[in-house]
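Bench notes, bay 3.
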Amino acid sequence: MKTQQMDYWQGNFGKEYTDRNKTTIEQFENIYKEQFGVIKSELNKEFLGNLSLNNVLEIGSNVGDQLRCLQTAGYQNLYGIELQWYAVEQAKQNCSNINFIQGSAFDVPFRDSFFDLVFTNGVLIHISPSDLPLVMSEMVRVSKRYIWGFEYYADSIIEIDYRGESDKMWKGNYAQMFLDNHPELRLVKESKYKHTGSDNRDQMYLLEKMV
């Protein structure tokens, strides 16, 4: 499957995004502290602290900052799938003992129920709403137990300008979209985090697969 958004992220814009987002763990934590008033590792602990996870997959891992944050907290057997070759190369250079694979969220190259946890962080917002059901279905397919997300929130899908481009970014209630399309899921936990200096909010959610 090939989409307009995939072409966009695989090209120069995606490379520029990757170069802009290379950070140390400390810089990565500070970005969240400045934007939400809390570091990312604390948000992760709030949602994942009581879970036993043997392996984890991130969809849209870019240079691996999210996975490095989990690794620092003690999680092992971490995997990232990323569309952009350049980002995969950078991730492999910057991270140790994390498995990065170049591939598409529309066709995740793992068997059913392989991972204890599958997650996105600011990735679903860049997928066209018409394509979301397939991506969500792939995430649910490869998850044995949990789906976790942190995405730009609105009560319903709203397109927003992204660096002067249209058809590149949306916000919505992604947790509810999962639940609407996958009755085998239940909501375990959900919180919204207001952006510093604006009324914009991000939603973190944890869903459990009941099979």
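Next record in the batch:
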Amino acid sequence: MGKFLKGILGGFSGKIGNVIGAVWRGVDYMRSLPRKSSKPATEAQLIPRLKMKVVVGFLRSINDLIKIGYQSYKGKQTPMNAAVAFHIDKAITGVYPNLNINFPKVVFSKGRLLRPSAPGVESVTPAKIKFEWLNNAPATGSSSAATDMATLLLYNPGKEQFVTAEDVAARSGLTFTLDVPAEWIGDDVHAWMSFVGVNRKEVSDSVYVGTTAVL
């Protein structure tokens, strides 16, 4: 994709011949249409395509968390682009064509605040998941604070559904119990958590808390 210099009519958006014009973040671009090939794609070509499909399919449902969690990525890389690149590189498991998300490697937030300390997760009835953690914020001299707010994430792979909860408890609160759909009873779920500063400008890395069966 090349940078497009404006002519007397300025930039353009849309298709003209075999060229597509677009504007992204205030910059005009143009690129040629890809040439169609009659040759079947090779496995080396199909593998990255499938990785992209798997990662995007997983992350797009938590786009709001990604926007906050990867907000420090500046310039021409959007938070979602940064998250997709990270997970393609770090969070894919299996052998083609059986590629899947490696859940313990999922990171929905990356930042400078202290990560959750000694997080734990357990099921409590009826259809509730309890998170616990320690308050590891120093008294002074750190951007991390006892007032940082927890963001919680649950994923049910059997039903391909998420439950998210943002700003639900302070770092000093030590625990929060999250309601899940009743139809999840009997299913295994994966859990993650992170912290966000009260100004929502600073975040911690998210951590994988573990898995539990919904009671």
